[in-house]
Known about the structure:
Blueprint: H1 3-29, H2 54-63, H3 67-73, H4 85-100
Helix pairs in contact: 2-3
Amino acid sequence: MTEKQIVEDRKYWRCVLDRIVTLIITMSKCNIAFRAHRENDSYTDDDRPSSCGNFLEFIHLIAKYDPVFEHLLKQPKGTTKYLSGSIQNESINMLNFLQDM
């Protein structure tokens, strides 16, 4: 990987994480539940069930207008996307920790 590719990847992932953290903060401020009873972060618009959780629904909505999330959702299954329930929980816990400082 060249230096230019590394810089571009770093920039892309910062954009992804910035959007995810902003969404988590917004949903938390509005007391919106993040997940549904059953969800899967690998659904595409074509095979997504009627409810895959508010967080993922917002991700898919934003992706319709945002090229960063659009690119993220087009990644093949098994690719790191930072959208899983465990990542959501870790992000919420980190933000709570930072707020308590």
